[in-house]
Amino acid sequence: MANEAISDDPFRLLVQSILDYAIYMLDPNGFVTSWNAGAERIKGFRTEEILGQHISTFYTPEDRAAGVPNRVLETARGEGKFEGEGWRVRKDGSRFWASVVVDAIKNEHGEVIGFAKITRDMTEKREAQQALLEAERGFRILVQGVTDYAIYMLDPAGRVTSWNAGAERIKGYAPSEIIGEHFSRFYTPEDLDIGVPKRALETARSAGRYEAEGWRMRKDGTRFWASVVIDAIKDEDGELIGFAKITRDMTEKRETQLRLEESREQLFRSQKMEALGQLTGGLAHDFNNLLTAILGACELALRNLDDPEKLKRMLDGVRGSAQRGAGLTKQLLAFARAQQLEIKPIDLKPFLAEMTTLVRPSLRSNIELVTETSDQLWPVDADAGALELAILNLAFNARDAMKDGGQLKISAHNVVLNGDPEDLKGEHVVLKVSDTGTGMTPEVMERVFEPFFTTKGYGEGTGLGLSQVFGFAKQIGGAITVESRAGKGASFCLYLPATRTARASETPVNGKHALGRVLIVEDDALLAELAAGMLAELGFEGTVVHSAKQALEQLAGGERPRLIFSDVVMPGGISGIELARKVRNRFPELPILLTTGYSEEVGKPHGFPVLQKPYEMDALANALSNLLKLEISAN
């Protein structure tokens, strides 16, 4: 017996020490005969309080009235075991959700001598499960109640496994009609032909998500513009178990957006017509003044052919008016970015010194001109004529903003940019033109570079000056910014790309001696005669032909010229650029200089130098000098 007592002690000690389970014994009639620490903790009864009490003590009044305790014992007696869950009552009357196992204990003769009962408090786990079930129920109700979105599930093969009210409203299918069908039936025939549904699932499978917009089909065959998201759904092991698909009908929004874009386009066209109307007034005013000066000077010149001094003044007047007209045309072409620029290195220090001399006479006496440049100013890549025009436009804009006088400051300094402004990077020179004038409001600043926009009165300006500066900056790969406050003046910063390229060596020659023959290709007889005259003054002999075809014939049959000087736009089906390409293919060493007033063809890459019309002898001399590497002077 002593040995048996010793062997029982460890088991009894184990059972008594368990706190998470109530483990106790019942006699064959259901009365408690043992009680462990876990039972005391879970049910609240001490051992001396509960021993000899019936099992029904732990049941709710409803269960006792329904005879549940007796059925539990009868089940365990008849089947050997009872398992179940339900509400139980503690000593203090509170309830807890219990997981219960009752095992029948039998002797060697098979007679029931009692029951072993194990109870576990499952209240927290049940509450968590109930919360999860409630959340799932709420989510299911939410998804089913959504009508603006089609929300449904697909199996891994793309077949529909669930269907909400929004999907029924948008696509037109009832759940019984669509569940089990492949989702590709929602796609257009065109998308089916190129495999869009398959690619959508493959993308979602590999990337985890697929997003797109496009046309989809309803049950009745009509189309709607859909925004689609497909998410891959995976289990805890990372295995794909299906897809969640959300579709929204964006047809109305897309149509609204298209109407808005159309309205904006109409507004833009309307504003453009209004701007062209404003431009017409300014241009008509300026050109009528120029034409009046030219016609008047010509008439007086014809009447005074015997007075050389007066004749010279009249011709100078004609020349000055023509130069102003050329400047106005240059502004228009620069704004349109259709003017061919001759990009070359420019040393800014002497260039700005010359510009100061050019700007100063145009300023009123109450405006002070100040210049400031750094000692080691980098050369810049730009077109000298266009840069000169840009500086003049900025200076004149500053002058007009200082009606009561002030200070105009032109400065330049080196800067290395790293993405600001306008993503510019590398070495640049900042040319800054500042004034102490009236400044600008934020509303004016937003439109200051718009074509034809001006705050000046009717006929006082075309609104193209600052647009020319903007277009020039873009053409050379630079930028322009403005800072201003009303009443505090304005500062324009022109960012010019720096260069360190040395200029090609030039060999001086005597411009008065014959420098060779130039083949002039020009369909306008008067312009051809003028070009020949200018070339003669520069020391060249000119030969004139009036079409590209004639030029090719002469090159094939006679002595080759020193260079070819050709107009771009000509009759006969062969343009100046096409002529230049044919000549380069046959005579690669023969220099070619093109000239034009305006041609869309010039705006495209072609690889030939272009002299912009109208040109004067100095411009022609510079172009020939650069092309032939000679020092040619118009003096």
| Computed structural class | alpha/beta
Strand share of the residues?
15-25%
Q: What distance lies between the first and last C-alpha atoms, to the nearest angstrom? A: 141 Å
Please list the strands of the largest sheet in the order they lie side by side: 10-12-13-15-14
Uncertain regions: pLDDT < 50 for 5+ in a row? 1-7, 501-513
Largest sheet: 5 strands, mixed
How would you characterize this protein structure?
The protein has 635 residues and is α/β, with parallel strands linked by helices. The protein contains 20 helices and 22 strands. The strands form six sheets. It has a five-stranded mixed sheet. Strand 19, helix 19 and strand 20 form a beta-alpha-beta unit. The protein starts with a helix and ends with a strand.
Write the layout of secondary structure elements.
Elements: H1 2-17, E1 21-26, H2 37-43, H3 47-50, H4 61-65, H5 68-79, E2 81-89, E3 95-106, E4 112-121, H6 123-145, E5 149-154, H7 165-171, H8 175-178, H9 189-193, H10 196-207, E6 209-217, E7 223-234, E8 240-249, H11 251-303, H12 308-336, E9 344-346, H13 348-359, E10 367-373, E11 380-382, H14 384-400, E12 406-418, E13 425-435, H15 442-447, H16 465-475, E14 479-484, E15 490-497, E16 507-508, E17 517-521, H17 525-537, E18 541-545, H18 548-557, E19 563-567, H19 576-586, E20 592-596, E21 610-612, H20 617-628, E22 630-631
Parallel strand pairs: 10-12, 16-22, 17-18, 17-19, 19-20, 20-21
Antiparallel strand pairs: 1-4, 2-3, 3-4, 5-8, 6-7, 7-8, 9-11, 12-13, 13-15, 14-15
Helix pairs in contact: 11-12, 12-16, 14-16
